Amino acid sequence: MTSSHHSRPIPAALERRMPDVRELASLVRFAKPSTDRVGRRLEKATSVWELREIAKRRTPKAPFDYVDGAAEAEISLRRSRLSYRNVEFVPHVLHDVSDADTSTEIFGRRVAMPLGIAPTGFTRMMHSEGEYAGSAAAADADIPFCLSTMGTASIEDVATHAPDGDNWFQLYLWNDREASAALVERAWQAGFRTLVVTVDTAIAGARLRDTRNGFSIPPQLTARTVLDAAAHPHWWFDFLTHEPLSFASLSRSSGTVADLVNRMFDPSLDHDDIAWLAQLWPGRLVVKGVQSVPDAARIAEGGVDGIILSNHGGRQLDRAPIPLHLLPEVRAELGDAFSIGIDKGIMDGADVVAAVALGADYALVGRAYMYGLMAGGQRGVTRMLDLMHTSMRRTMRLVGVNAIDDLTPEHVNLMTPQPARGHWV
Predict the structure, then answer these.
(1) How far apart are CA 256 and CA 180, in angstroms?
(2) Predicted structure pTM score
(3) Other C-beta atoms within 10 Å of 214: how many?
(4) 41-410 has which CATH code?
(5) Extents of the domains making up the chain
(6) Which among 312, 325, 389, 411 is annotated as catalytic?
(7) 325 is catalytic
């Protein structure tokens, strides 16, 4: 066959011409100058992982590693993250997904999405706004915020700062039961209505990054930290010009994390103590740190209102069970009506969608929250939540559901674990 392309007329769009200045002007989009460096920095972050990179640049090594690290070889941390990377979604096509609604109910309260901020300790060491930023951002986003026993803002101050928030209190039971009871009473009087008792911290895990960094409360000025200060002047200025750090729910204490845990927490905690708390606490009682189906069943039979599947962020027992893998079995055992939360490894709204599809009522984020906090205080936490929400809505629509309650196990396959590439931590 003979080609005849030379005889075809040249389309006007393919003829060369000099550019029209007016057309060029419409293509030029220079950003307006701004003195808001924090806002510019956060706006450029397109994922929680990018917030983590900002946080790493802006935070001294010891506090950053406290957030970023885990126990021993950090195997549980990697496996938990990998469990979400190996999720395969099963889209259901030809469904109207005009407007995905992420709202749901957690303990009878309507929230904007099935997500809450997990309890974190030493939070004002990561950024001076600490729990004040977290509680306010959560209230603005209409999701729960959980204050830790090891928090650096008091129960009363958080309640005052975010009075319209769904504020939960996380309890470590101490050797001194009277002090624990007094703390629980303070939380109730301040308006907290959900008590989360952590049960996976009989003793402190071996957090080797903290040991190598000499991490302590308050941070000690050693030769190493002085050198690190030169690279993070803003953080040190913030730290030195605000109220000294202490555990605001406790008497002022100092030392390493392991020292505090081993000195104050009760390794004899058992089911009788949970029953005691259920009698003591008038509100909702949730047990956090459940890592097996038999434990989940026995705790649920004990009259609590919910459990949270958690391996403590991989910070206690290394090679602990992976919450996402455990979730379908626990849901099958406890039935649809019992409240099940989940944490560990969640860094994206798609992770939340996967967890809900497999049976979770809600997810909690700890490290993602802290990365946002370190990257930009309350604005950084808000940016993290916005990224989570946007990803959640997009994933739901691409999966083919318009509402959180429409997610089912049919929308998810848990793939055989594959070697991880890219982000491991």
Answers:
(1) 21
(2) 0.90
(3) 13
(4) 3.20.20.70
(5) 41-410
(6) 312
(7) no
